[in-house]
Structures are given as C-alpha cells and as structure tokens.
C-alpha cells in the first residue's frame, strides 16, 4: 500500500498489466512525445498531461505507440487490433474529441460481438479526460459518458478515487468488451491509498461512500466528493445520507441504488454530463420505474444548466454542480 | 505472369470468381421475390479484385470490407451456405442472422466484416496490421474501399497511420466509377487515388481491376513488401459495377447501353478464360461453373428452409460478460 | 390541401423555402446524383431514397449541392456556411453516420452562439433518417436523437406525420439555431393531408394526438402510431389515453407533458432511441422531479433491449416497441 | 516583392506583427502570475504567417483558426483589448468571457473562431467559401492548420470538397515542426504537406513562413485565383514555435539551445526589418514597437480591472430563440 495520486494509480494499472500481458499496448498522441523531435532518447511527455509518463521508458516504441493527431485512426486501429488479438489501451486525450472519432466505437467496436453473432470480441479500453472546473472552456470540459452509456456493447467507467482508478482500470483492461474509461481531470492530483500489487474492482458494483438514513445521493467522478462534502454538512444538522458512487455507468449497479432508495425514500442525483438525456435522467428513470413505491418525495436532480461549459471561472463555478447545491437539494427533500 | 501460378491455383482462382458471380447473380434473382430483407449491394463485375487480392493471402491474414462485401467474403473463404443464410436473416447465417448482407463477418477466416460505414475498413485493417506487427507473426491485413469511399477522412487517417507506423497493410481501392449515383470524375478531386496515397508516403499503383492477373501481381508485390517489414501499399483497381448501387436502384445516372457494354467487354471471368486459354480447357472451367451453380442452388434451398433466429437470441451476445 | 406522403411533404417544405429565400441551399450526397456520371442532364437520385428528388431540376447545381462521401466536410461546411450567411439544409443520409461527422455539430455549430458571447448564429438544418423496422441492420437503424438532445445549442425535431414534417421543417429552416431533423424512414410512404401553402409548426409545442383520462402515453416518430393503435385497443375496454407526441425533443414541451400527467397520474413512455440514457429517461426524470405528486403508479418505459438493432426481421420485430407492448404497459398501470 | 507594397502597407504589416509579438510575450509573463485561467498557446515565432496571409484579405473575407489563434485574430483585425479581456475571462472580452484563449472569435471581423479541435478550421472555412460562392460576393476564406493538424481526417475531406466544388478557399498549413511534443518528421507520413494537398487536385506550394514577403506573395496569388473562380490553393508555411506547446510545457523534446537559436536566426520581425531596411528607418519601426507595447500594456491593465461576467450571463445566448 502506498499513497498515490489518481494519475499515478492509472499509470500503475497500465504498467502492471503490460508486464503481465504482452498483448497490452498503449496507443495515443504524445504517449511518449519526442518521436521525430530533436531528443531521440527522451520520453518527453507521457500523454499531454503526463499520465502515462514512464511507460515508454519501460516498454519502448513497440508497445507505447505514439500516433499522429488522428483520433479516428487511433480508435479504429484499436478496434481492429482488439478484434485480432491485442488488448489496446487507447487514449482520446479529452473525451470531448469523440466527435471526430466516434464511429470506430459506436458503429464498429461496440457492435462487433452482437452483429457478428457472438463470434467476435473487442477487448479495448479508450481512456480520456472528462469534467469541467479546469477553465478549459467548451470543447475541453465535457463529460459525454451518458452518450457512451447509451450505446449497447460499450462499458463505461468513471472512477472517483485513486484506489478505484487502479482497480477499475485493471478490470477494464482484462475485460473482453470495449470500455470507455473516463478520467476526471480535476482528480489527477488527488492522493489516496493504493495497493502496490495488481487488483481488480468488478465493473458494475457501486460503492457506498457514506451511509445514512434520510437521503440517497448518487454521483460520479469528482462530484462524489462534492456529494460527500454536502453529506458532511447535512450530518451536522442530523440529516444523514447514503452517498452512492456507481463507479461504472454501464453496467450499472441497479440493486445498490434501489436498495438505498428503499431505505431512504428520498433521492438526489448529481451529475455534470448533461442537462437533458444524461446520466442523472437514466438513474431517475430507473428509480421512477422500478423504485417508485419507495419514493416519498420528488427526485431531485442537481445538474448544470443546458448550456456549453463557459470559460470564465466566474461562470464555470456557477455551471458546475457543487456541495452547496447538493446540500440545498437534500434539504428541500427534507422539507427544510 | 500467368505462369507464376500453377494450374491448381488458376483453377482455384477461377472457382472463387465463379462462386462470387453465381452468388451475386442468384441474389439478384432471389431479391426479386421479395424474400430478402434489407438492402443488398452486388459485386458482379468486380470479381477479379477480390480474388486477385485474396489468392495472395493466408487464412491467418485479415481483410476489412465494404457494404459490397459478398465478393470479398467468398474470396477470403467464408462459407457460402452460411453467407446465404445470413442474407436471408436466418439463424444458420454466419452472424446468426444478426448482421445480414452488410455485416457478414467471420474472424476465424480472417474476414473482419463487411461494413455499412463507407470508409470503415481501412482503420480496422491497420488495427489487424498492428496486431501482426506487435505479435511479429508475419501477418498482413488488407482493406477494401470504393472510389466514393476514397473521399472519407477515416481512410486518409488510416493511410497516414500506416506509413508512420510502417504497418503491414495494403489499401485496395475499388474504383468502379461511381459512389451510389455520383461519378468518380466528380467526387474525387484530382481524379487519381494513387496520388492521394502516395502523398502519405507509400508506394501506390493503379491496375486493371477486371484482370485477375494484374491485380494478383500488384498485390503479390505489396504482400511481399508488407511481410518483410516494408510497410503499406496502396492499389487502385479500375473496374465496373454491373448492377445498381443497391438492388432496386434504377441507375438513371448510367448512359444508355452502359451495362450491356460492361457485360460484353469487361467481364472479369471472360477475361480470365481468355488469358488461360492455353493452359486450361474451357470444359474444365465450365465444369467448375456447373459445380458452383449447384452449390449456390443448394445454399439458397437450405437458406430458405432454415429457421429464423429464436427469440432468446435477441439478448444474446451483446457483451462477453454482463 | 392535398394528400401527400411524408417524403413529399419534406421536399415540399424545402422547395418552398428555397423559392422564398435565396440563401437556402441543399447539401449532401447524391442530392442530385449523376454528377460525373454518364447522364449529365439527368437528376438521377434526389438523395439515396429520392426524398429531395425534383429540387435539382428546379434549382440547379449551385443550390442543390452534390458532395463526395464526406460527412465531416458536409457538416463542417454547412456550419461554416450557416455562420456566414447561408441557411444550409444538409443531409446526413442515415443519422447513424453522425459517428464520422459529429464534431461539426457537437463542438462547432451547437456552441458558436454561446461560446462566442452571443455574437454568432448557425441557422442550419441537418436532415437524416432514423428508426428501426426496415431490416437495415445495426448501422442503419439507429435513432441517436437522444444524443443530439443532450447537446446544448442544438434543437431536435422528430416529425410523425406528413403534416408535421412540412410545418416543422419550414420552422427548422427559418430557425436561427442548428436543428437536427430526424426523419423516420418507415414513415416516408405514409400519406396525410398537407396544406399546399407554406406554414410553420413552432418548435417546442407537443401534439395531443388522442385525449383520454386514464393513462398518458408519450411517443415520437413512428411510435406515435403504435401508441395510438394501443390507445384504440385500450379504449375498447374503457381505458382512455392521452397520446402525446412532443414532436420536438429540444425544446421539449414540458408543460403539455406535465399537464397530462396531472390529469391521468399514469405514464407510459415509449421510445426506440436507447435503453439507457435515452429520450424516455429524460421524460421520466422530468416527471419524477417536476410531476411526482401527480403520479399514482410507477412510470412504465417501453423500450428496446440494450442491444444493437438485429438484422433478421424475426429479431428486429422483437426489438422494436410496438402497440402490443404499449398496451400491455398501460394495462399493467391500470392494474389489469 | 518588397516593392509591390507601399510604405503604409509595410508599416501596417509590421505593426500587426509587432502587436502579435507584444501580445504573446506579455501573455507569457502574465500567465506566470497565475491569473490567466485555462490553457494558452502562444504564436510567437509565426507572426509572418498570420500577417502575410491577412494583409491580403478584406474585412469581409473570413478566416478559421486553431488553438494557437491569437496571431490570426490580431492579424484579421480583432480588437486587442477585447482579446486580452477574453483571455482573462472577463465580461468585456470579445466572447464575453465565455470562450477564452482557445475560442476567440469575431464574425464581424471575419474571424470564424480559434478552435480547440485540431483540424477544425478547414471545414468551417470551406463553408464560408461556399457562402461567398453562392452569394457571388467575391469573398475568400482561409483556414489555418498546423503540421500536426495536417493528419486529421477533417482536413483532407475539406480539401477534397474544395476542389470538387471549386471553392474560393486557401488552406494554410503552419508547419512549425511539432504537434505538441511529436515531430513533423514522425507524424506526417511522406513528410510533405504540399504533396497531400496536390493529391486532391489543387495548386500547392511550400514557402518560408518566417518571411512575411514569401507568405504574402504566395497568398496574394492564391487569393487572386480564388476571387476569380480558380478554386482552392494550399500553402505550407515552414516556421518555428518559440514557446512550449502550451504555457507550462517544459519542452523536453527540444534540442539543447534549440529555442535560443530560433530567437537568434529565425525571428520574423528581424527578418522583416532586414528586408525593408532600404525603405524604412529602424526608428520608425521602433516607434511602432513602443506604441504597441503601450497598447498591450493598457489592454492588460484594463483586462485585469474589468469585471467578470455577471451570473445572468450563464444562461444567456445558448439559443437565438428558446
Ligand atoms: C459514412 C457513410 N456515408 C454514406 C453511406 C451511404 N453509402 C453507402 S454505399 C455508398 C457509395 C459508396 O461508393 P463506393 O465507395 O464507390 O463503393 P461502391 O458502392 O461503388 O462499391 C454510400 C454513399 C454510408 N453507408 N456510410
Ligand atoms: C481533435 C483534437 N485532437 C487533439 C487535440 C490536442 N491538441 C491540441 S493542440 C495539439 C497539437 C497541434 O499541433 P499542430 O497542428 O502542429 O499545431 P501547433 O500546436 O504546432 O501550432 C494537440 C494534439 C485537440 N485539441 N483536438
Ligand atoms: Mg464506387
Ligand atoms: Mg505544429
């Protein structure tokens, strides 16, 4: 066990899997950095924010594959490689870039197995950053995981801690289905205890990050921490909360969610993916259809407005859900 | 050139072309009965490309295909009975009826799938090539793309990636003059696909795609290069599509008599027969044709008689786990 | 007033707007068909299924612009043209192809106005086919309108009749925002009464296609007709339904939906976009948050399974929601 | 060549380059204070490209830009005070603080927007060109793309569309040797962007992008061609980026002394000064530099003092209606 950042935990997971399995390769832009530059022996980058730094030095250019700026080909190549014997870990850098590269996931990798009658598989992981709060503006702050989750055949993972990041990433790499692995960029420097040896966290098992009796709060990624901060404040007034981090959107741990709602009867769903047709709406629909009888009050959604992510920190702060908004929603449910 | 191949190989090549021809012409008829669901796109007229390419490949090599994929599938060794059942939407189909004409695939034969997305194959093929390069197993991958598809961004990106990583891959462009109803002359700026490919830094040539031997030879060189670490090649094969874009297309963009002229003057099977005249008797080839006709006949009979997929298959095989 | 097909109604709308406004242009693959072929004077296609046939003959190649197979450039060009003075009606053929072309909508056109401080607009319409039931298999049967609706800045329209198709399309062309216009391919041959003169149906106003007291059924596109068929059968047993066709997903007529739910207290939402994070979940979340107190029973969702669309008609029929499934859901709500 | 431009034009060109230089170098300093939100990508070293291009354009012509867009914006006439306020996230910014450095736009100046999507500009630029062609207003559009961006499928598709429709558009490729930390030599298969463009059927040349006059001349010819219905042109401009990819990049992919060498030997402003030595006194240019410094100084002061956007702007301007 060591204290590691979320960023280090991710690298750790990839490095350990690469050591164990020769078919695991990393593909992406500037995964080394320096190819074709003037420092032929230097690992200059390790991904634009250095998440995979160190892998090239250990594994070399054959397994840490620097690519041109060519997301369609990165994803398509990863899909083709996955179908034929590799386990690629491809990086899309910012998930916002899926707009130039979605076909390889949406119409290809995700459908191979079903459309080919169960005779193909595509064990690939597509890593990428999501999340607002970094002043990265409209094209580098989005969280399109709701879109990924709506595609049958894709699995979707959103870790909220270093521990989860490592365990879920190893599970994703070992999984025989395509996985969209969504890293919240504002968590990269978050530290936590992480076992040194490889371990897996099964996809589809939620984490109760806090237990309580009055309200169920459901959140993903960095918002799990906002939810917990809200729960702490509420606890001071005697309002206790279950804070559930589903960790994976697809598969979704419906049981964990419904059990908690059965106990509390009150639900706040917090999310930043979309104000319409997003992750929160999915969970709300689950509860309104399968957990309706447990509900004592309307479902509260804490979401950004239906606008692009604004650049100015003054507006972005208002845009993002936070502990105060979650707290207010919970209090509203408690009628206070 | 004819001489490089022994007689068995020539007969094998002819048989494959004959299979494709018979399969497609029969589908043309069967489709008229209304019993085939969805869209079908026939490959007749382009047989020499698929076979000229695939006769150079091992079963462990991979191809990625297009919406017009029956010919590629047959050439790469997919089972004709399974294909026919697939086209009819039956459980006995190679994809258990879930894919249909536009998604015939058989990974065990190195067939990565027909593809409903124009330009979809090249990036999948470079993936298969990356696998071969990484595992150092000497494998080669081939993608098929049309002249229309040669305008798709996916395709350019794949070509660039292939030269950057020096992947063992061959990009086949089947230039049949049209993408749906739009002419190559209109849609392909520069009107030369080889110039595009060579802009990405790879050897690129144009060949007569109605001549099995021209295709075979070009691909043979490209495969050698790829297997020995020499990187990608692009080959533009000029050919003709005899039928409509899909079955049902009235082909108003065609000149009067255009199709009749093709059948007469640009028939890849006839051209092949002419070229092997000195080595192979016509009767031997006729015999193959007859065998193939019977085979396709049987495939249709079995496909028609076969069962539709059972209801429980609806939910099967979405994920490997969960 | 004449009897027209859904297909003709669409062409009618475009032709009339092109006559009224010189800045309206049509862009897409085979919008004429024949360019570069051997019949230089023939309008061979008018879109692959002939929807726009006739436009080229009337307006010529300068305003009916045939393109190569190049969806990214079609959408990007339309976005750039819209920002600089045209009102393009671009065709994506099958909306399933958004995977190769989404960036021009998702990160460009939809964001211009907000991200540029209100100083830009992008009046473009992207037309495309959606819907299963045509044995077109996994890559030509999808309905990704839930994805479009989750993008702020985009409007999303799904007409269910010839009358609506014409009125909504004219409204979309005149609208100064980017609109995704989703045509259900199995409706193309549906006939209905369509006024000859131009008219608009405002975006964001739902249509009560049937009124009743017991159950609210919400559906889009071709499923509106399945919902009405179900309502007819239910009426025979004295169960009467509101059948609401929102017609546009974004904007969504929340008021119409909530008013109906207030009256019936029971809701069936039918949709084919997605089994997860789809349009139905969006509406369910709306009702569970803002209309909770009206609800007398769980919300019933009638959705396809979370699988790609299978090719074989035997499976596709099971995949698609239909009148029988809707009827069953309504009966369940009525406790019968 | 120098002689084609009169003195006022030369002074104007120098002023624009000086503005870009001062703006970027000042941002480099301001960024160190931690007061600038988000990422910034500086254009220093490439001034001659933006200015060499935009001096050929009318206010009604359009440009589409990259993530490294400050230089293009200034060259096309965007307001420096508004840009500075934008970079600081203030309501007085050209985009009211909603866009930031990576999304500076001003349609009223013909600036279609910096773009956070690599390869985003060319397809928007062909749209602006389509507008000009359709409205027959003689307008021209220009897109900027980097060497890294020259690998993006969007870019190839835009080039093909431009030749097919013979659009009045110019594709400028700014080849500064790197995309982030990856060398042009590695990422661009074929290592020649002009060969790619000419594969799509358009005139394509490579020029020295540190020499204002070389760029100006090439673009001048291309603009003439475009305005007179001659279709698209592609121009690859070889240049250097002095700073890191973004502010904060330690630049480990650089050779030791690489940047010092650039500043010394490849400074577009020095090169310009040398070339106009006979017509323009150094003191005149120094005076411009001083004026520009004061202007940028004032822009920073005002930007720092300006208000952040008010809360109600969060919901404003998503749609034109609803
Ligand atoms: C991305 C995408 N765009 C458009 C289509 C519709 N479409 C199917 S086949 C075809 C024409 C393809 O032409 P070409 O590549 O020349 O192949 P050919 O049909 O001539 O064999 C088109 C436009 C599609 N399936 N996918
Ligand atoms: C589609 C997309 N892919 C990747 C990125 C990340 N990115 C931003 S700038 C850049 C490098 C661009 O290199 P180049 O085009 O040469 O422009 P330069 O930075 O050298 O001016 C990359 C990879 C992006 N913003 N968009
Ligand atoms: Mg073709
Ligand atoms: Mg560069």
Distance between the termini of chain B: 54 Å
**What structural category arises from helix and sheet content of chain B?**
alpha/beta
Q: What topology, given as strand order, has the largest sheet of chain B?
A: 1-2-3-7-6
Low-pLDDT regions of chain B: none
CATH architecture of the largest domain in chain A: 3-Layer(aba) Sandwich
Structural class of chain A: alpha/beta
Cofactors and ligands: thiamine diphosphate, magnesium ion
What value does the average pLDDT of chain B take? 97
Proportion of residues in helical segments of chain B? 40-55%
CATH-level-4 superfamily name of the largest domain in chain A: Thiamin diphosphate (ThDP)-binding fold, Pyr/PP domains
Largest interface: A-C, 59 and 59 residues
CATH topology assignment of the largest domain in chain A? Rossmann fold
CATH architecture of chain B: 3-Layer(aba) Sandwich
What's the Cα radius of gyration of chain B? Answer: 19 Å
Report the CATH C-level class of chain B: Alpha Beta
According to CATH, what is the class of the largest domain in chain A?
Answer: Alpha Beta
Organism (chains A, C): Paenirhodobacter populi
Protein name (chains A, C): Alpha-ketoacid dehydrogenase subunit beta
Domain Transketolase-like pyrimidine-binding (chains A, C): 4-190
GO molecular function (chains A, C): oxidoreductase activity
């Amino acid at each position: 066990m060591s204290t590691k950042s979320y960023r280090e935990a991710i690298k750790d997971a990839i490095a350990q899997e690469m050591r164990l399995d020769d078919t695991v390769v990393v593909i992406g832009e500037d995964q080394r950095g320096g190819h074709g530059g003037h420092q032929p022996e230097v690992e200059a980058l390790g991904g634009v924010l250095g998440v995979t730094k160190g892998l090239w030095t250990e594994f070399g250019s054959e397994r840490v594959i620097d690519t041109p700026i060519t997301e369609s080909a990165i994803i398509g190549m990863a899909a083709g490689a996955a179908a034929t014997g590799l386990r690629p870990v491809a990086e899309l850098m910012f998930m916002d870039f899926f707009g130039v590269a979605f076909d390889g996931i949406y119409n290809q990798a995700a459908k191979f197995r079903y459309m080919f009658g169960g005779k193909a598989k595509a064990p690939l992981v597509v890593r990428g950053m999501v999340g607002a709060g970094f002043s990265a503006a409209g094209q580098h702050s989005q969280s399109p995981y709701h879109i990924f989750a709506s595609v049958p055949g894709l699995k979707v993972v959103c870790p909220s801690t270093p521990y989860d990041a490592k365990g879920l990433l190893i599970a994703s790499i070992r999984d025989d289905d395509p996985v969209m692995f969504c890293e919240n960029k504002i968590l990269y420097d978050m530290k936590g205890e992480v076992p040194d040896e490889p371990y897996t966290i099964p996809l589809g098992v939620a984490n109760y990050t806090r237990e309580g009796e009055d309200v169920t709060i459901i959140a993903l990624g960095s918002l799990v921490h906002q939810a917990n901060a809200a729960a702490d404040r509420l606890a001071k007034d005697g309002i206790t909360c279950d804070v559930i981090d589903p960790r994976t959107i697809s598969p979704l741990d419906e049981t964990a969610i419904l059990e908690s709602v059965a106990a509390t009867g009150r639900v706040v769903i917090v999310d930043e993916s979309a104000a319409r047709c997003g992750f929160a709406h999915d969970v709300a629909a689950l509860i309104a259809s399968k957990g309706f009888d447990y509900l004592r009050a309307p479902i509260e959604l804490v979401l950004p407005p239906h606008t692009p992510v604004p650049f100015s920190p003054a507006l972005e702060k208002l845009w993002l859900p936070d502990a105060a908004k979650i707290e207010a929603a919970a209090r509203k449910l408690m009628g206070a | 050139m004819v001489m490089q191949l022994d007689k068995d190989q020539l007969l094998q090549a002819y048989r494959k072309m004959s299979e494709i021809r018979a399969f497609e012409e029969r589908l043309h008829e069967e489709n008229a009965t209304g019993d085939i669901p969805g869209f079908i796109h026939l490959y007749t007229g382009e047989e020499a490309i698929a076979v000229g390419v695939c006769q150079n490949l091992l079963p462990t090599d991979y191809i990625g295909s297009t919406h017009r994929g029956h010919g590629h599938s047959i050439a790469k060794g997919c089972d004709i009975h399974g294909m026919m059942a697939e086209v009819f939407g039956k459980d006995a189909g190679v994809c258990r009826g879930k894919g249909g004409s536009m998604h015939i695939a058989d990974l065990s034969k190195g067939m990565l799938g027909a593809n409903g997305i124009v330009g979809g194959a090249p990036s999948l093929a470079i993936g298969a090539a990356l696998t071969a390069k990484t595992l150092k197993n000497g494998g080669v991958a081939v993608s098929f793309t049309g002249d229309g598809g040669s305008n798709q961004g996916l395709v350019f990106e794949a070509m660039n990636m292939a030269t950057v990583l020096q992947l063992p891959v061959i990009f086949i462009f089947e230039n049949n003059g049209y993408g749906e109803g739009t002419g190559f002359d209109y849609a392909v700026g520069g009107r030369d696909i080889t110039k595009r490919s060579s802009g990405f830094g790879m050897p690129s040539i144009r060949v007569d795609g109605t001549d099995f031997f021209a295709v075979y030879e070009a691909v043979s060189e490209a495969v050698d290069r790829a297997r020995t670490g020499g990187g990608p090649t692009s080959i533009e094969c000029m050919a003709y599509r005899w039928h409509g874009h899909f079955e049902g297309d009235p082909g108003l963009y065609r000149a009067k008599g255009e199709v009749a002229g093709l059948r007469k003057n640009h028939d890849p099977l006839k051209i092949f027969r002419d070229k092997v005249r000195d080595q192979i008797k016509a009767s031997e080839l006729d015999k193959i044709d007859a065998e193939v006709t019977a085979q396709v006949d049987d495939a249709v009979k079995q496909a028609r008689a076969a069962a539709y997929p059972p209801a429980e298959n609806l939910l099967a095989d979405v994920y490997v786990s969960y």
